Protein 1
Amino acid sequence: MQAATLPYSSGWSWIQDGFKLFRLQPMAMFFWSLMTGFLITVSYLIPLFGQMALIASTPLLTFITLNACRNIAAGRPMLLPMWLEPLGDISTRKRLFGLGLAYLAFCLAGGFLATLPFMDSLMSAIDAEGSIDEPALIAAMRGPFITFAALYILISALFWHAPALIGWHRIKMSQALFFSMVACWRNKWPFLVYGASWAAIFFAVQTAGSFLSLLGISAGMVQIILTPVNIVVAAVLYCSFYPAYVSVFGGNYPAGATQSEDVNKLS
């Protein structure tokens, strides 16, 4: 698998192309964003195991998203039965499930490695009677959070393109992780722009909510206003995954293949 090396401006182009995809079938992607939000909410209702299940299912959800975007880019209406079609093949489903377990294992290992050096400071925030000094605990958690954030960048690079590489190209997991890491490294500047742009977008949405509160609008009304906005922003985020993949690996498709045509339509 040959990964293209793109200019840094591609990071913003992925977001623009994602928005173009969203505009083609906004209700379909709004529905998917709503469903993923629902799954995230449900996962938090089941302490620990819910979050673990959500992490393990991330590659499956990502592959569903990519297939939906491919259908939308090709001009095919996303009907309800089409959402689970990518998982209809047993082999693909098993391979993606295995990728999900690997992703969970990497995240757990990252959390362990990030926490281990700070165990003394974390334990010092809990006295002999078991009461917690909250300010001390919050201060002690900064180190693990920062360390895990750095480790998670590496984990994300390993798994970013892996669902598509496994699901569409049917290559081994180890190869998919390697190709994904190489692709992300070659395009580190576009991904930096991509990540910074999304951080700015989400910050702008939250700032808008704070501004509405300053105008005297009740917290409940602000929540009502921001909820659909957040769903749309998340939908555009999901849509941007597809152009990010196609622009990097599109050269591996024969001339006239669906993915190559789709990326041209978005340009």
Protein 2
Amino acid sequence: MPPKEQALETERDAKAEELESTFSYDGYQVVRKELFAHLRDPAIVIRKDSITFNTACISGLEDVVYVHVMFNSDLKRIVVRGCDENDKDALRWCIAKPDKRKSRKMSCKPFSELVYNEMGWDSDCRYKILGYRINFEGETLYVFDLLVPEIFHESQKRKKGESAPQSEETKPVNTRKGFYPDDIAGTFGVPVEEHLKESEVKQIDGYVSMGILTGKVPNASAD
């Protein structure tokens, strides 16, 4: 190896040893996944009258057609786990065909209203939350943190015969472009230790099933 390249390699090795000997996670934040492109990541979309799990989410729980949807009002999280069709509060979260499963809109106005009220959300918006797949006590779960939503304006339907506003100050709302709350958009993420704690589901005791929460179960037979 030429002397110049040897000197550079020696310098890099010395720098690596220095970094290794002094490294600490103190002061580092884990950058939020939400700040990157995530079109193909598992997610739930919550509207004021329905919820929808995307195809990536459904594919992550292999062969699962029915699920339990659970809500934790303290942690502000939704957890989803697979279950059998005849289990209490079982919900069909996808359309199952012989060769594939695909997403379906789950009508659930009572549940959505409770979530919107709990979170203080705007009824003129829909909320997309990324799902994190974890293993807990031998089960595969999806965890959705409602405190980190991507927000989309819903298109406003005009009544028949009603004309659009003519004010020059009125701009059309982009219903396809999402945004995050200021406390999310203005930060990289959370400290490493806090991130580890947030990633844990220590118990299911604090979660309430969707059926118990609303007293109703959405129609599981409608597509």
Protein 3
Amino acid sequence: MPIDYDPTRWAEHTAYTDPGRHAELLQAVPPDLDQLSAVARNLIIHYRASAMELPEETKPDINARWLEAILDLDQQRHPGDLAAERDPLSRVQGCCRDHSLFAAAVLRQHDQPARIRYGFAGYFAPGFHVDHVVVERWLPDEHRWLRFDPEVEEPWESMPTPRDIPPGTGQPYETAAEAWTAYRNGSIDPQTYGVGTDVPIRGPWFLQCAVLIDAAFRAGTELLLWDGWGAMSDPDGPTEDQVEIADQLSELIMKADAGDVAAERELITRMQSDPTVAVPETVLMISPWGEPPQPTDLTRSAVIGS
């Protein structure tokens, strides 16, 4: 990173990580990566990957997009200390995005810059890259972003360093921009990038959508992974215009990740105000439970009454 790079904007909560009434509970979680990752896994159970029969009545948990709303659900079931062990069946149903959102929130609560990223993990299934959200924490002494996965408890053969994942194309974790660029260069099979080996959601159109979501994340809009809006491809795409959008955003993201401040400013400006790509006030939430798509107001007060 350039010596004058300033990550302090990422030390502030976004609307998504703001704990609201639960600030003291969040403050009590130490910013140690192992500890905060353990608390994230204690609060949130993956709705699909847990290999457990989870309660029907808690299925709607997965749409609790705001951290305050996630903690509301947890505290209704387990009042008090976030580190106190929860019965897995009573944890908040969520996914990697929610584990990472919580982890980033803890770090921000301690005034430490942190951001979440959307991309693809090659360490869950041999030969396949699963869409996945991880966290990046700023290390001031090393002047770099450290990438970590709060869902992975211990090192695996396929992921030996879950608390310091090396960045870059071809690494165990690739950002959506890196994966898209590799696809456009013809160096990957896009059919090996998707939701999972058992889910037919994959390929170029899905990579294009992933770029949009990570671009939104990089601009501080930490959406649900099943939020959609007009700039995104559908399974019959992407169109030429959508390809161009993904090309442009991927270039900006990769430059910004390398420390190009001008590229980061342009990326944020586009994601906030360019009508061709900006996240609108209302998105279409396409629930993985197969429910009809639902227009959803992204105004935080519309959901949690804050």
